[in-house]
Amino acid sequence: MLEEVENKEKDSNMPNFQTLQAIVSHFQKLFDVPSLNGVYPRMTEVYIRLGEMNNAVRNLQELLELDSSTSLCVLVSTVGKLCRLINEDMNEQVKRVLGPEDLQRYLFKKFARYHP
In sequence order, what are the residues at sequence separation of 6 or more whose Cβ sits closer than 8 angstroms to the Cβ of residue 52? Predict the structure, then answer.
């Protein structure tokens, strides 16, 4: 990549070699790329991961019937609320099946097992 820039004629729109070298060096630090040969493969990996993340976000927004402009913060918060609701519902179902006395007895046995 840097060789391509060195070989091109100087163009007013083309950043100078030192600027490009600084950009590549910064990328190497950000994405833990020890050698120049690893820059292109890591760029590809970052691009692929970004695409996967964007697809996951779009899928979650669609499943949760959220607007496509919904922020990641709101998306994560919505997923968290959904998980809490599911857990609360599961706890209620266990209480209904076991009954309060059975559940309390079970919890005391577990507690006594780990805290003699």
Answer: none
